[in-house]
Amino acid sequence: MSLVRKAEDTLRRECGFKKGSSVLVACSGGADSVALLYFLHTLKEKLGIAKLGVYHLNHGLRGAEADADQAFVADLARALDIPFHADRADVAAYAAQHGISLEMAGHKIRYARLERALESKGYALAALGHTASDNAEWILISLVRGRAEPFLWGIPAKRGPFIRPLIRCTRTEILAYLKKHRLSFREDSSNVSLSFNRNRIRHRIMPLLKELNPSLEETISRTLEIGDVLNSSLDREAAELLKRLVVTKGKTRELDTSELSSYNSVTQLRVLRLFAPWLGANDLLGLLPLEAAKGTREMARGEGKKLSASYDRLVLEDCKNRPLWEPMVLSEEKDVLVPGFGWRLRVYAGKPDEFVPRDDTVFFDASFIKPPFVVRPWREGDRIVPFGRRGEVKLKRVFSDRKVVRRMRRYWPLVCKDDEVVWAAGLIRCAAAPVTSLTSELTILTLLRGEDDKQTA
Question: Which residue among 10, 241, 282, 315 is least enclosed by CB atoms within 10 Å?
């Protein structure tokens, strides 16, 4: 089946597209979004699209290269005679403010800005260029990170106003389509950087798996298509049940577990995930089987929320404390001064002969981890996979083992990359990017305390 037939079928059958709808295409200038824009443009009359527009978000991360991407998309929209809507955001500042990775910050801003553009520009749907290849990579990342999502569903063809007509098309099909229609596109230089988890999956793991099954992406896509149908049905049932079983009392929400326990385990899990979406796999399994508690005890924390079991209820309440200091970006150009301690964090590149492990310095293989990093204070529920181990441990346990005074814990600096804690400064590093005999360049993080800091100042 050709890309056009696949995309047209997905648009009507899975995206629920109706004639007369208006569509805003999110276009970065990359291969996937250019193919999506051209597909919708050429079939606009046949599909019955009432209004078609182009939206581009400049993340402000790659300077002149990002500006050139925006100019490229503007020129493409002009050539196709399609209205062009440009937007700009400071993703790095947002990431630092919220203590998250650049990748996650970009994701959050893109969706928020797209929703705002739909409303302000008068479009009903936002079309995104996710493909079957993206879906396969997402599934592998989910497996590696141990997310709670069951394996049978990935990136959906439709969620709210967002539709993905190319979700059943592979990257190979996209490139063939662009070549056939002699369409140029922009290459994002960050897409080849192995400092991002997704790129390591794309450039190293996927080629190995495709040696076993050359049609891996199509195989996964067919499986996920079945999963999407099951997921939608389970979500509807769980949402209806959740609405009936939850009572809101001020700033807390209470879930009646006495009735929920009478349902099968699959339904219980779906309701729990909707009730507290941030729960991890271990947290969810720890809640089952649902039984009445003899008192009240805390079960999990995340995203500023606390989940407690209280007799025949699960109680969700806000426990978000204002951080004692705001997250900061750590790069080779600028050290980070840690508030409350007077310590300084520094990152720089080095060679393997500089590898001398110390408590105040950690070394990573620069092929996998490079700056910038985000430095933020510890939060309740933070975890790390310690060097030399496979499973996560709570940093609260690390603080206890290392006899860190309680009043200092909330101030303690954590160095983060891609939403993961890579170093609890001066205490413990993560298992990622170990230095080996094949390492040619190091990323070196060092903590300068007191006199050491003064000597290097």
Answer: 282
